[in-house]
Structure formats: C-alpha cells, structure tokens
Amino acid sequence: MKSFTYERARSPAEAAATAARTEGARFIAGGTNLLDLMKLEIETPAHLIDVNGLSLDKIESTPEGGLRIGALVRNTDLAADPRVRRDYGVLSRALVAGASGQLRNKATTAGNLLQRTRCPYFYDTNQPCNKRRPGSGCAAVGGFSRQHAVVGASEACIATHPSDMAVAMRVLDATVETVRPDGPARTIPIADFHHLPGNTPDVETALSPGELITAVTLPKPVGGTHIYRKVRDRASYAFALVSVAAIVQRDGTGRVALGGVAHKPWRIESAETQLPRGAKAVTAQLLSGAKPTRENAFKLPLVERTLGAALAEAKG
Amino acid sequence: MQGPSDFELSRRKLLLGTAASVAFGAAPGIADAQTPAGPAQAATAPAISMSKVSFNVNGRVRELALDTRTTLLDALREHLHLTGSKKGCDHGQCGACTVIVGGRRINSCLTLAVMHEGDEIRTIEGLGTPENLHPMQAAFVKHDGYQCGYCTPGQICSAVAVLDEVEAGIPSHVSADLNAPPQLTNAELRERMSGNICRCGAYSNIAEAISEVAGRPA
C-alpha cells in the first residue's frame, strides 16, 4: 500500500473543499472496497479524508412521504430499517443479497453506489485496463468474459457494476444528494448517476472532483410486490451473474431493473409496458442491442428466466 | 507468557530472514516492503505518515502511534500482540480476521486502525480464557467445530455477533418474511456465517456448535 496522510472530516462542506484542493485526496467511509484496492495499489490516494464522523447516518422521513437515507447509513442498518422492510422491500432484499454480514456492517449507502467493478482484469495490474490505466486497452475483450456486460458496453470496457443495492435504488427512482466544493448542493437522479463506459470507462459517475454524497432519497412508496432475485455461482457471498429487481402491481404492471449485465444498473422504462405480457416480451426490449461474448451469451436467456421466476413469485 | 519485546525480536528476525532470501531473486520492491528502511532506501522511499489513535481493546484502553496504512488487524496482531485474530486473505473474503467493534462483527483487515478512535473492540482474547471459555468457545470445542483451527477465532467472533443480529431482528437473504422476526434455522445460520470460510470444511460441526448456543437443534 502506498503511504498516505490522513484526516478526519469536520463537516461535509469542509470535506468537499479539502478534497478538491488536495492532490490525490479520497474520501473513506466503510473502506471495504477502497482498502482492498489500495492494498493492490489499484487505488493510490495520497490523502484520505475520513468522513465517518460526519452525522450522515440517519434515515429520515421526507415531507413527500419518502425516506432520506444518510450517506453513512450502513448496509445492515438500511436493510433492517422497519420502514425500508415494509415499504421498500426490494431494497432490503438487494442489500442482504450482497456481500457478507461483516462487510454489510461496515459498507455505507454512498460507498455501495461508488463500488468499483470486480472485473478480474481491472484487479490484475499486469493486464491492460482502460478503467485502471486509460488508453492501455481492455484485456476482458477477447479474454475470460463470463462475468461481463452484455448491454451498454463499449470496445473500451465490458465491465459490470457489482452493486446489488444500486439496482434496487434504480428501480425505486432514488436520487443522490451531494455537496460540491464550490457550488450549491445538488441532486442527481440515480438513472444519471452511473455512466456507461463509452470511451472513458475511468469516469464512472456524475460526481465532479471533491463532490461528496450526503444522502440518497427515496420517493414515496409505490406499493406492489417487491422482489430481488439474484443468480450467482454459489448460494451466498458472491457477485451476481444476473439479478432482477422488480416491483409488480396487482394488475401486472410494474418496474424492472437488472444487475450483472451492464456498467450500471440496467433499466429501460419503456420495456416495462410489456410486463403484463410476460418476461419474454420485457427481456426482448430490455436487452435489445445486446452484444454478448461467446462466454457470457448465457446471460440473455438467464435474464429472461430470472425475470420469469420473479414475475411468477409476484403472482404468488 | 512471552513478553512483547521477545515477540517483536523474534518476529523481526523472521521477517529479515524472509526479506533477505527473497531479495536474491525478486524485484527490489518486494524486499523493501519487508525490510526496515535503511540509509540506502531512505533517499527514495516516500515519507511514512504517522497518526495517533486510542481505542479500547477487550476492556483496556490502548494508545498507539501508527503508520496510517496499518489495518486494525495488523494493529491488533503486530502492535498489541493479540494474535488470536488471524490474517487469511487480507481482502475481506475469508473472515479469519473477524472482530467485534461497537458490538458488530467486521473484517479487521479491511479497516484502518486510525479510523477507530474511541471504539470498543472485542477480539477472541476478550471473549473467554482457557480456564473460563465463552459459551461459544466451549460449544466449538464440544462439537469439534474446526480441524486446523486457523479460521476458528473469526468463526467464533462472527457466531457470537450473529446471535445478536438475529436477536436484533436483522433480516438475511434467506429470511422468508422481511417483516417477521428472523428464526435461527440451520439455513439462516449458514447464510449469516457465509463470510467465514473454513477450508477444512468443518461447517456442519460449526453449525451444530452455534445452534447449541442459540438453544436450538441444528
């Protein structure tokens, strides 16, 4: 691990200002992903700003009838919150489908959104990776690509976003609240928060330098049956090959987002009009234009079957 | 018991020996990482950043001045000589380093020691003693919940915290009803313990040990 200086932040605004003016500064909260990457020297911050002391660990009701989740609310606490379990079940389900108990006790709401990909070529510093070293190429293209993206990828990067929580946030239309070092606070719709790789796979989110997430807000509950169905190589503590977050209403309408298939949580609102017609019709639109590799082509039928299973579960 | 200074000496000798043997065939960077910085390296090595931290470990306040890079696991093992917590993968994948901080189990390898100012930390050494075992330790012994024993301190710390998590009503991936109190079934227990790997495969005995402490048949 490279040496770094360390400070504890005193306020969100001050943390953002410090991050913007300090070369190589990074925020650290749960640290479960950042420290992993620092040990491998994939992340090499020169300065860490510990934001754990900021009072961003509350879950509050909003005037609109939703919930405002502080950036530092731990994954365990978010999954266990009675309001989340009752009104946003897909979020609780997605959270407990991810990582291990130990990691969920540490990992934060904001940090979960900012997780880096688990692409093995991103992790292997001997391999080219446009995300890790822009312009060096992509070893996953033509490489071992079973886990990789089937939609929204580019020639520069076929990595997937690893988060389960973010898929549920996408289906719930969450918004991300931030403070910026030199501007007013802003809110970013979750749909715009994560970027597709394009030619700049190293630019993963809409955040500008020094910008700090302070909360994630959920709109008022939409009712329906909430399902998060995750398919992986072992029954627990593994990343998704494919996951489906679904909210299905009694009349068969609803919402769907996918994990494990793209560089960001994958949702196409127009495809949801097909929900009453079943999984095949929805999947055809959700994955139209998909360009799987030979090794991950199985994800296309797997999405359809996983969605089919989710819809069957919703019917009860 | 071996004194801290003896321990440090023997360990340093061991590391120096390892570094010297590695240095012949490997990149200099590898040797640098294990050799105390000598005059030759001081010119190129970046300055080491130090930071002070104070936390409570097993009921005792400990104050340390540490290289900021020191993980909580390394602080416990290398600085406080509490070697019960084990380093397995050092990347949060195996759970051998599990300790209980503020009542919650975490991977001590994936957190910096300096991030734990004022925290209450409980390690396997703080759960029980050979003469007065914690019920979970006694159950692991009774049910043979290990073979080589390397993962055991992490398994036991994790298991103790799992029972608290169930008591607190925290749901898991296999909880059938999110809005009902979770039951400590065998499936629940296995799911909740999935962050602790046992390469010897003592899982069924581990499950029996935890079930006994929880007061339920496995």
From TrEMBL, chain A:
<feature type="domain" description="FAD-binding PCMH-type">
    <location>
        <begin position="1"/>
        <end position="223"/>
    </location>
</feature>
<dbReference type="InterPro" id="IPR036318">
    <property type="entry name" value="FAD-bd_PCMH-like_sf"/>
</dbReference>
<dbReference type="InterPro" id="IPR016167">
    <property type="entry name" value="FAD-bd_PCMH_sub1"/>
</dbReference>
<protein>
    <submittedName>
        <fullName>Molybdopterin dehydrogenase</fullName>
    </submittedName>
</protein>
<dbReference type="InterPro" id="IPR016166">
    <property type="entry name" value="FAD-bd_PCMH"/>
</dbReference>
<dbReference type="InterPro" id="IPR051312">
    <property type="entry name" value="Diverse_Substr_Oxidored"/>
</dbReference>
<dbReference type="GO" id="GO:0016491">
    <property type="term" value="F:oxidoreductase activity"/>
</dbReference>
<keyword id="KW-0274">FAD</keyword>
<dbReference type="InterPro" id="IPR016169">
    <property type="entry name" value="FAD-bd_PCMH_sub2"/>
</dbReference>
<dbReference type="Pfam" id="PF00941">
    <property type="entry name" value="FAD_binding_5"/>
</dbReference>
<dbReference type="InterPro" id="IPR005107">
    <property type="entry name" value="CO_DH_flav_C"/>
</dbReference>
<dbReference type="InterPro" id="IPR036683">
    <property type="entry name" value="CO_DH_flav_C_dom_sf"/>
</dbReference>
<dbReference type="GO" id="GO:0071949">
    <property type="term" value="F:FAD binding"/>
</dbReference>
<dbReference type="InterPro" id="IPR002346">
    <property type="entry name" value="Mopterin_DH_FAD-bd"/>
</dbReference>
<keyword id="KW-0285">Flavoprotein</keyword>
UniProtKB/TrEMBL annotation, chain B:
<dbReference type="Pfam" id="PF01799">
    <property type="entry name" value="Fer2_2"/>
</dbReference>
<comment type="function">
    <text>Oxidizes aldehydes to the corresponding carboxylic acids with a preference for aromatic aldehydes. It might play a role in the detoxification of aldehydes to avoid cell damage.</text>
</comment>
<keyword id="KW-0560">Oxidoreductase</keyword>
<keyword id="KW-0574">Periplasm</keyword>
<protein>
    <recommendedName>
        <fullName>Aldehyde oxidoreductase iron-sulfur-binding subunit PaoA</fullName>
        <ecNumber>1.2.99.6</ecNumber>
    </recommendedName>
</protein>
<dbReference type="GO" id="GO:0047770">
    <property type="term" value="F:carboxylate reductase activity"/>
</dbReference>
<keyword id="KW-0408">Iron</keyword>
<keyword id="KW-0411">Iron-sulfur</keyword>
<dbReference type="InterPro" id="IPR036010">
    <property type="entry name" value="2Fe-2S_ferredoxin-like_sf"/>
</dbReference>
<dbReference type="Pfam" id="PF00111">
    <property type="entry name" value="Fer2"/>
</dbReference>
<dbReference type="InterPro" id="IPR006058">
    <property type="entry name" value="2Fe2S_fd_BS"/>
</dbReference>
<dbReference type="InterPro" id="IPR002888">
    <property type="entry name" value="2Fe-2S-bd"/>
</dbReference>
<dbReference type="InterPro" id="IPR001041">
    <property type="entry name" value="2Fe-2S_ferredoxin-type"/>
</dbReference>
<dbReference type="InterPro" id="IPR036884">
    <property type="entry name" value="2Fe-2S-bd_dom_sf"/>
</dbReference>
<comment type="subunit">
    <text>Heterotrimer composed of PaoA, PaoB and PaoC.</text>
</comment>
<keyword id="KW-0479">Metal-binding</keyword>
<feature type="domain" description="2Fe-2S ferredoxin-type">
    <location>
        <begin position="51"/>
        <end position="127"/>
    </location>
</feature>
<dbReference type="InterPro" id="IPR052914">
    <property type="entry name" value="Aldehyde_Oxdr_Iron-Sulfur"/>
</dbReference>
<dbReference type="InterPro" id="IPR012675">
    <property type="entry name" value="Beta-grasp_dom_sf"/>
</dbReference>
<dbReference type="GO" id="GO:0042597">
    <property type="term" value="C:periplasmic space"/>
</dbReference>
<keyword id="KW-0001">2Fe-2S</keyword>
<keyword id="KW-0732">Signal</keyword>
